[in-house]
Amino acid sequence: MQKKDVIIIGAGAAGLMCGITAGQRGRSVAILDHANKVGKKILMSGGGRCNFTNYYAEPTNFLSHNQHFCKSALSRYTQWDFIALVEKHGIPYHEKKLGQLFCDNKAKDIVNMLLDECAQAGVEVRTECSILQVDKVDDGFIIQTSQGKWHCQSLVIATGGLSIPTMGATGFGYDIAKQFGLKLFPTYAALVPFTLTPKLLEQFDGLSGTSADALVSCNGQSFRENILFTHRGLSGPSILQISSYWQPGDAISINLFPDVDLYEHLKQLQQERPKAHINTVLAEQLTKKLADRLCEIWFADYVQKPLAELSNEILQVIAEQLQSWQLKPTGTEGYRTAEVTMGGLDTDEVSSKTFEAKKVTGLYFIGEVLDVTGHLGGFNFQWAWASGYAAGQYV
Ligand code: FDA
After folding, report:
1. Where does the RsdA/BaiN/AoA(So)-like insert domain start and stop, copy by copy (predicted)?
2. Which end of the chain has fewer CB atoms at under 10 Å, N or C?
3. Statement: the pTM of the whole predicted model exceeds 0.90
4. How far is the CA of 108 from the centre of ligand 1 (A)?
């Protein structure tokens, strides 16, 4: 039997950070992962450059049934702490937009940094290690694995959510929670593209790859960034963001002209350029391809006429359609492409200070397996670092 003070299951962002913190405290630590490589999601994140944190990370960037739960950990390990670590390792990075920090080179820089820190803290990292069984015993836990039997005092579950099963995601963390009688919230794919009806897809045929700056709203939340037409429906940052607030059956509202009162703007253009056509003036903000197609779908009766011949009522209809386009997605692309999983372990089951399960001494849950989900923009990694660090101080 191999013995450690701490065993962490899952060598992703949260697990590695927890291992480093515990190792630095002098605890003997092993991190076990079934995948053939550590930090696969880090490697694929941010288009291969890892959006590792955000200058503006704060609790309001996170969704949870308990909005207060994340506050303590986020305040004890902030974006500035992670930035300091990145700088200590001399990793070049830049702000892309909206406070989002990316590596200049490759996401691998972040994984290498975490593995260097693990090595310095004496943390053992095992890959290709399948977990067969977990049992609670008087003095800790016994874990049966494909690499033998292990004993530990503290067991940390850092196996993440269900997104991208091909990258090693499993429901292991939820199964352990069930095994110990802990409450779970239903899980949903989030930060995920929407799918559309066959009719809409036919209307948008050929627009795949076209994007537009838009304000997208649903259930009282709005995000302004690009939307992107895809072969299956709609994606782009503002769509991914709003997907976390969308429920099946909801319509989303899209404002394709978020900076102006479009009705007033069109009336002004009517005065200034009476001979212009609606598709031409819309193409000054949208791409020509998108403006032409939307006019074909929505304004076929008006597009042939110059602006001078369009009544105020018609200008109002046009403005209304473009500024509060109501769209009902048929669904999402699901865990296959979702960046994160909403829901999961009820945060009331664990201490917000230590991340230890209130009912099971020595059992800890960190990272995405918990019911804490960040917005797009480096917030989910910040949650992984912060929760990993917090638990690492107590395991
Ligand atoms: P994570 O998923 O990182 O790690 C879990 C680990 O547990 C994995 O190594 C897995 O192999 C292992 N595991 C799972 N089941 C197991 C089992 N049964 N036995 C043993 N091991 C098991 N966030 C962000 O802030 N900025 C970004 O740029 C991106 N980009 C991004 C792109 C894509 C494509 C995805 C899918 C996700 C992102 N994210 C992101 C989200 C971010 O990757 C995610 O929130 C964190 O990785 C979660 O960290 P965890 O450590 O909780 O889980």
Report:
1. 188-340
2. N
3. yes
4. 14
